[in-house]
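To illustrate the input format used throughout this study, we show a single complete record. The first block contains the structure-token representation of the backbone; no residue identities are included at this stage. The design step must infer an amino acid for every position from geometry alone.
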């Protein structure tokens, strides 16, 4: 499977906003977006041309892809699924991305980044409603309960989670840190996305 192997901070700099790809570093003064707000590369500091409408749409699509760690084919599949749902397509797309199991693990504070959450899910550390799920793209539903597998609870990583996470939980999730259990209290809403995004531009990009 293809994967991005270069610096994660370059992706944030390219999009000009924090995508929270490096865990706690993104909340510190070491964040690359704060230190070097220009795009990466030798021409990053050169005067930028006014972006075309297509370029703006492309950047918003790439921003969403990079933030959630989704490859193009899977992202397009998620978009197509969003078009078949009732409601606004852009909001449906963001809801489906937020409901990915790796994102839920990250948003619940059981991983420092979505990339780490994806690795933990891949390694089979989580149960959904008592059943092992090792597919990061698994879509959770309202009232689903995500629990750390019993034999994984003694890992140093999860011991640190039990000691307390400083991350603010979105209102659609609840966490029992002692039991290492997260519950999907409701489906995520548009305001629950933790970075700036113009989802209507993504819809326009795929509607060309």
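Output of the design step:
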């Amino acid at each position: 499977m293809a994967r991005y192997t270069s610096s994660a901070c370059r992706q944030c700099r390219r999009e000009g906003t924090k995508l929270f790809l490096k865990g706690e570093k993104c909340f510190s003064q070491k964040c690359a977006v704060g230190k070097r707000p220009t795009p990466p590369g030798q021409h990053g500091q050169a005067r930028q041309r006014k972006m075309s409408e297509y370029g703006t749409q492309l950047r918003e699509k790439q921003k969403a892809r990079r933030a959630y760690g989704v490859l193009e084919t899977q992202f397009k599949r998620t978009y197509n699924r969003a078009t078949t749902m009732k409601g606004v397509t852009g909001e449906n797309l963001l809801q489906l991305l937020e409901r990915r199991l790796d994102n839920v693990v990250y948003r619940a504070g059981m991983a420092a980044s979505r990339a780490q959450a994806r690795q933990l899910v891949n390694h089979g550390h989580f149960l959904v409603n008592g059943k092992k799920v090792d597919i990061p793209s698994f879509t959770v539903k309202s009232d689903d309960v995500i629990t750390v597998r019993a034999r994984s609870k003694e890992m140093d990583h999860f011991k640190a989670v039990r000691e307390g996470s400083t991350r603010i939980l979105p209102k659609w999730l609840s966490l029992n840190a002692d039991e290492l259990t997260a519950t999907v209290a409701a489906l995520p809403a548009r305001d629950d996305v933790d970075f700036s995004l113009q989802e209507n531009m993504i819809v326009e990009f795929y509607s060309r």
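Structural context for interpreting the output: The first strand starts at residue 126 and ends at 128. The radius of gyration is 18 Å.
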